[in-house]
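User: Sorry, what's this?
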Amino acid sequence: MFSLAAFIRQLLPSNLRTDLNVLFIQMLFTPVVTLMKSIEADRQRLLIEARATGQVLILQELCNRVAYNSAIGPIYLLEGNYSTIDFQVIVPPGLGSSMLSNIRGVLDKHKMAGKRYQLVEQAAYNAQPTVIAWETGYPVLSSTKLTWAINTTGTYQTVVSVDGVEILNQAVGYTAGISLEYSNTVGTTFVVTVGSISASLTRNVATGVINRLGYWKFGALLFILPNVDVGDVEVKLVGIGSTNYSDTYQDASVGNNTVSGVSYNRQRIYAGIGNGTYRAYARVKGQTTEVTLDFSLGVANQSPIVSYENPNQTGKVGVFFTYQIPLNTFTDPDGPQPSISVGGYPSPLTYDAPTRTISGTPTATGTHTITVTGTDNQGATVQDVFILTINPADTVDPPPITGASSIVMYNSNVFKPVIQYNSSGMARIVDTSGFSVPSGKNVYYFISGSPYVTSLPTTYDFAQGQTVTIWKLVATSPDRWANTFYAKGFSIIYIGQPS
């Protein structure tokens, strides 16, 4: 869906892409955008209202469109006394003779035959004031923006404040039911006032999730390391078993740490923590859900363990191979996620440590033992082993079959089949016509009545003695019986002995 705010943000230089700049520019576009949206909304609404209330409402809408941006207030129609007039056309004061003439033109062109009308300025009759109200479902505050809309068309003074700071205070043009928005991902309390109505909304900032928790001992300092997707984090540390230590939740600061190849973006630092067994707690501030981590300091280190056994893999000479070692291959009972290293893969395959991926195109067959090693933060290791088998490349022996009657072709410049065989005598069919497919067209093959495919199979699927019929269609549609195709070819192929 098109977003005006996102479009404006892309047009601005990077140093000017603030939410406030985007909002002000969006306000400048509001008359054009709201007019376009209003015309479409009114068109749909008029189709319904016309059936229920007749031509009076249609005339009212047409008059308002003619006077759009020229009238201070709406034009609307009231029923008349039926003795001298059938309906009254109430217009705002000071509309001007030229615009009044335009309004009369609309009425004379579209009014029902014989209907009489009278133009009356609002000052000449007791008009009921318009009551402003929020459009149903508005205003609403999401994790990224404030959105609001009213159920009345007009210009109203609008004030928006975020956490007590006023970011907008000006007259804004509205179309009933069409929303405005202010992008903001960090504010907590929003107040929006339009004319006489006001609403206060509060965002729940405690929506983050702690996705991992680790620790790091550096000299006399102990780092408790949570990683959170959004929000602030609180951390506490307590002793477990025979270790006597007690702590309360305190804020973790923002920090970028990498331990054994795993990143953490929050930290709380402790000094003077003695040897023992501990449990670290972390939670997103404002939430009650806790994440815990048990670990030991100054006691016998427990080696990491294999928690996922990598399955054996196969590759093929000349075909690109890739395999990613899962992050959860190893776990450490008393520490953070172990680091991962890999060895034993054949050249020219390579291993990318940041993504834990073995990749490359094999050049020789063979069987290789791949060793995956997990190392904890104290140097203890564990290994997982799997087998990588590189198979030979496919071999092709493509002599054509003998006998002129083995292939019957129609329109060979579009479809010119050739039969190729592998070492087992199985056959495949290759299109050698070299036909140039024009822009906007596609190629469709129909093989012995099967559903269409967009290319001939590259595998050796046919045995000696088979008869294969193939249609080739160059068109925008795969309907081979349609008359809209660009070009068509047809062949009957008998799979005989390779020569």
